[in-house]
Amino acid sequence: MKALISQFMSGGIMVGFLASGYFFYRFWQKTRDSLFAVFAAAFLILAIERIFLLATVNIGDPTGGTHELRGYVYWFRFTAFMLIILAFIMKNRRSQ
Question: What domain range includes position 62?
Answer without folding.
Answer: 12-72
